[in-house]
Amino acid sequence: MTDPRIDKLAQILVDHSARIQPGDRVAIEATIAAAPLVRAIYDLILQRGGHPSLLLDLPDQDEILFARASDEQLDTFPTFRKLAYDQFESRIRIASATNTRGLSGVDPLKLKRRQKALAPILEAQMRRGAEGAFKWVTTLYPTEGYAMEAETSLKDFEDFVFRACHADQDDPVAYWKEVEKQQQKIIERIEGHNQVILRGPNVDLNLSIKGRKFMNGNGSHNMPDGEIFTGPVEDSVNGWVRFSFPAIYNGVMVEGVELTFTNGKVAQAKAAKNQAVLLEMIESDPGARYVGEFALGTNYEIDRFSHNILFDEKIGGSFHMALGAGYPETGSKNKSIIHWDMICGLNDDSEIVVDGEVIYRDGKIVL
């Protein structure tokens, strides 16, 4: 019997996140490990009058690609994905890996080469998303691989995922609409100001949000969600941060990342583990050394580190920054082939000051 929470999650994705309308062409990206959720989404899109197209991968498809592909093959972007991102009205992606460490041994140069090939797809997503022409959302289907990464049983991880998405509620769509309302109050308190200062055991940073727009992470693009974010003024970031959680990119875990910024640019970078990957990625292009996103996590149902950025960047009591591409709708002008989120806890002896006013202390918004 199908877990009823899967149907609830499908309802959130189709009716709240992607807001499927009659005639919408929808690409469903997943591995075959997510078949129960894919089936529920496919069914519901048809009920809403949309046109679903399945873009399904094998769980170990990327492992095969990097083991066998020539440089020419690595440089070729997926034709049908590119078409969907250029022309469709919506995309629902379901992260559903069964081996989260499958790419750990891949040469960083190969990872960067592949990322460059996929850059037009990311660019189309951000550009058309900002224009309102492309309703994209990313979620996760709980697999044994993700449960192992989170150091828990599959059942406990399923409970964690569905609770974070609020797919265990009678009316989850209504819940996410209330999240949108409450987070908008926080945005109204911050937006329109200039200088932001972050202080704490792991951070001493200042940046500018002058003229930038904050976005309300209410489930439109990520599920689970729970964040407010913007793109800082590109040359304004100065100071130091040590990210208290591992930074994961293409399945590779980089631990103990420390960055020092001067006039917006990463001037110094080091890591306790996999530093070579960090240094390789920030050399991807000129924009990779600048911050494309600054965000506060507000989802207190995400009460543990799961080694998955979709969840971890929303942890209540944290902030995160992304090196690389910024979201144009925030006013960010930073462009890059990467968008790499890195998370820092703000629970203890920490504060955020906006134009001289403390708006965040020890993991909580001060309203």
Number of strands: 19
Q: Sheet bearing the most strands, described?
A: 8 strands, antiparallel
Topology as H/E string?
HEHEHHHEHEHHHEEEEEEEEEHEHEEEEE
Q: Which radius of gyration do the C-alpha atoms yield?
A: 20 Å
Mean pLDDT metric: 94
Residues in helices, as a percent range:
25-40%
Strand order of the largest sheet: 13-12-9-6-5-17-18-19
Global structural class: alpha+beta
Strand content: 25-35%
Question: Distance N terminus to C terminus?
Answer: 45 Å
**SS field, number of helical segments:** 11
How many domain modules?
Answer: 2
Low-pLDDT sequence parts: none
Q: What is the overall silhouette? A: globular
Kindly list the characteristics that best describe this protein.
367 residues; alpha+beta; Thermophilic metalloprotease-like; eight-stranded antiparallel sheet; five-stranded antiparallel sheet; 11 helices; 33% helix; globular
Question: How is this structure best described in words?
Answer:
By secondary structure, this protein is an alpha+beta fold. It has two domains: 4-170, Thermophilic metalloprotease (M29) (Thermophilic metalloprotease-like, 3-Layer(aba) Sandwich); 192-365, no CATH class. The chain is built from eleven helices and 19 strands. The protein has helices at 4-17, 35-47, 61-68, 71-74, 79-87, 108-131, 144-149, 154-165, 172-190, 275-281, 309-312, and strands at residues 25-31, 51-57, 90-95, 135-140, 195-200, 203-208, 215-217, 227-230, 238-242, 247-249, 252-254, 258-262, 265-270, 291-297, 318-324, 339-345, 351-354, 357-361, 364-365. The strands form four sheets. The protein has an eight-stranded antiparallel beta sheet. Strand 1 (25-31), helix 2 and strand 2 (51-57) form a beta-alpha-beta unit. It starts with a helix and ends with a strand.
